[in-house]
Amino acid sequence: xxxxxxxxxxxxxxxxxxxxxxxxxxxxxxxxxxxxxxxxxxxxxxxxxxxxxxxxxxxxxxxxxxxxxxxxxxxxxxxxxxxxxxxxxxxxxxxxxxxxxxxxxxxxxxxxxxxxxxxxxxxxxxxxxxxxxxxxxxxxxxxxxxxxxxxxxxxxxxxxxxxxxxxxxxxxxxxxxxxxxxxxxxxxxxxxxxxxxxxxxxxxxxxxxxxxxxxxxxxxxxxxxxxxxxxxxxxxxx
Length: 238
Known about the structure:
two-stranded parallel sheet; repeat; 238 residues; LRR_domain-containing; single chain; elongated; Leu-rich_rpt_typical-subtyp; Leucine-rich repeat, LRR (right-handed beta-alpha superhelix); nine-stranded parallel beta sheet
């Protein structure tokens, strides 16, 4: 993208608060952004060649929608926690290995997509964020869902295609969790304890591709309770 085009984009963004510079092979922020006024509410830098999230991002404290999916990012910097108005964070399709604890400062987050990365530990700093509704961690290398998950407030959690062999029973305490996706992991049927099946609010549970078959799952203590919730929700849909 030439300087003239970038200048036009920046001029428009000053009025709209929306700046989209995707598919431009960028490896760093356009220099013009360094002295740019703090007016951005949406910043889309997806499908570029960034290997890191620029530290200057921390200046744009009004951003609500931040998209850097489809880059080559391996580490998310602490400075991301300064975007306290952030509502949507899209960092899927990168090479991210860890998430900073400062992300817990972003208490307005509603949607976080970290799918298709190299994350090995469940990002517990996202637990307790009041408005977080959807968390996508599919296609990573997570091996365990820890007890801290009890304070996760999402309605949908996607953990498909990880390496999870441990599922903390405290997932039953998630106050709003309705949809839990755990397909293609390393779970035994026994990971789904009676407490999870009987006491949780989960009514849509995807478990294909684990270390058990559907018959074993259907025979679990609490399966009938889960199916009651599942059926109830289906009835409301029609």
